[in-house]
What we know:
Elements: E1 4-8, H1 12-18, E2 25-29, E3 35-36, E4 44-46, E5 50-52, E6 55-56, H2 61-72, E7 77-79, H3 85-98, E8 108-110, H4 118-126, H5 133-160, H6 171-187, E9 192-202, E10 205-214, E11 217-218, H7 224-236, E12 239-251, H8 259-270, H9 274-286, E13 288-289, E14 296-297, H10 312-325, H11 362-368, H12 371-387, E15 392-403, E16 406-417, H13 421-424, H14 428-432, E17 446-458, H15 467-477, H16 485-494, E18 498-500, E19 506-508, H17 510-522, H18 529-543, H19 549-569, E20 577-582, E21 590-596, E22 599-603, E23 613-618, E24 624-627, E25 633-638, E26 645-651, E27 654-659, E28 672-676, E29 683-689, E30 692-697, E31 706-707, E32 710-712, E33 724-728, E34 734-738, E35 746-748
Parallel strand pairs: 1-2, 1-7, 7-8
Antiparallel strand pairs: 3-6, 4-5, 9-10, 9-17, 10-11, 10-16, 12-15, 12-17, 13-14, 15-16, 18-19, 20-21, 21-22, 22-23, 23-24, 25-26, 26-27, 28-29, 29-30, 30-31, 32-33, 33-34, 34-35
Amino acid sequence: xxxxxxxxxxxxxxxxxxxFLGNDFKIMSTMGHIKDLPPKKLGVTINGTIxxxxxxxxxxxxxxxxxxxxxSQASExxxxxxxxxxxxxxxxxxxxxxxxxxxxxxxxHRITFNEITKPAVLEALKHLSHVNQDQxxxxxxxxxxxxxxGYEVSPVLWKKISxxxxxxxxxxxxxxxxCEREEAIRNFKPEEYWSIKGLFAHNKDTFEAELSHxxxxxxxxxxxxxxxxxxxxxKEASFAIDKITDKKRIKNPHAPFMTSTLQQAAFNRLGFAxxxxxxxxxxxxxxxxxxDKSTPVALITYMRTDSLRLSDTALKQxxxxxxxxxxxxxxxxxxxxxxxxxxxxxxxxxxxxxxxxVSITPEMAKKYLPADAAKLYELIWRRFVAxxxxxxxxxxxxxxxxxxxxxxxxxxxxxxxDGFLTVYGESESDKDQKVAIPEDIKEKDPLELxxxxxxxxxxxxxxxxxxxxxxxxxxxxxIGRPSTYAAILNTIQARSYVTADKKKRFTPTELGMTVTxxxxxxxxxxxxxxxxxxxxxxxxxxxxxxxxxxALLREFYKKFKKDLKEFKGKEGGxxxxxxxxxxxxxKKHNLVIRxxxxxxxxxxxxxxxxxxxxxxxRDEEGxxxxxKMQEPELLKExxxxxKKPLRRVIGKFGPFVACSGYPxxxxxxxxxxxxxxxxxxxxxxxxxxxxxxxxxxxxxxKCKFAAFGDIEKKACPKCKAPITVSKxxxxxxxxxxxxxxxxxxxxxx
Length: 749
């Protein structure tokens, strides 16, 4: 009897789904995308129509062959990749390949589900549909736009700045936001101002209030002299309570999470990077084992969404849980409904991110899940439950104190009813507002001024972007979509366009600033925030069937081609950023910032007559300082070949340890892999190049073994080769491959 074939996107889902479906089903995975634009050519042709060329991805040939073989023997075929545009294109590509071997095309169906539960999967099997061609067109449009920008602009950057650089339609705009914020910080001039607080006594109680007005005008104290004058006169005044205002303040619960708000909350509350959040969320969605280690359980709904909608089932679950575990005052009379905040409607079929089963509490999850997964699940669970609880209530009291021409104010806030806060907790701003004000005070009561404290302040520059605040800004401006935020942040860091400090705040590198300036000057449209946001809206229109793919692409390419031609044709050598630092050697020219294989450096534009170069650094104000080259450091350790001392040297690819007897002795200390070379048995050592590091045989050039990734002391399950290589992709998945390309083994975990 023929089996039914269900094809999912990720192999991690197979085990979770298999427990819902009987032996009638065979479940297989595409393991992500199976086809894409060709890697070594543009792959997009504009003739009468726009033709897009696709190739099977390298290493996916066996996957396609296995899926095709299973499909040819199946009674029915269900395409079930993720319910978004990327999932739709995967379904479409899979369908294209399967139609080559399946005679009856009516056997191929598209199904989607937002949660991996038995009811959701069985319900999806009742609602068979076809691949959504509008969603496919929207994904194709995005991919072609990105290919045009990346494929056409990147080579110009190689020529004008440095080889190996890349431009991206959305990543470059995100980088622009960071660079413009950095410029604002560097150009910021702090201004001095003073605040004055008074400590007042009422009977046995004391409380602080801040000077707000002098002669009914808002205070504006710019220096110590003025502050001292005010303090002196304040001490001479007699004070009494002028007015007391009591009111109730309501704080409503937050909406359940969508992708962007989950990323921001996980960053701010848990310290998780965006990529880390999405990697963990993917596992929670696909299923992780709880009590039974052999059976994964899907814990949350689909995590790439810009919808705030909750299903009736979810609302009922939440209200039942709240009713059973809290007193009646915590449960609203009816469910709370949250509107969509996103600008497009492409993801509206989804729900918000929520726990699938609210009875799996954070306390239960902690017993079985890894620590990071338990923390993220708890955050999602608490946000969801809190979103359906009653508001918190505060008693807010403002006291105005007057003495002559001087007015002091203080506002205190007391929590009357914690409401949803009992589950989700108070924000830091709410905690800061807790000021104790005596309860027995009345208007006209006299107060004794016990102390006056002046304090100097300076206005602060704009804050650097963190991952959370950058995602928030991108969402606000309409740049990117839920499925792209993590990849954008990952790319700008991987390309060395930005660095992140210990507090995970972004600073653009010299390279990032130079690339951004060059692109803004020459390709203003693709670097424009509003233009990029409008493009996202147009992609949503294509997904909704309100715009044609080719109309959008033609309009974009017409202007882009013209700007690009002018950009390419501009004369001049490599871009060099001017500085105001005079060359210390020739004293004729101001130094310029150049970019080489090992990064940026200062050089004299008088080269070759003057060959001065220097490393440099910028301080917080943007001032450039020359850095003296570090002298080689002799070590106590001896060279294993000639017994001379080893020394630590700074090379163009960073620090390394080598023999002090160079050039007579060419020994270089290298990090060794835990296994010998599978080709010749020699050591495998870490080597460096401008793109990073890789593993190579120590017997090179006799043996040309090389591996890009981490060496795993684990035999290939397919060809039994003694080692495999692992890499982590942009989404955080670990991909294992055989070191032999011809083997084709590839597995995601």
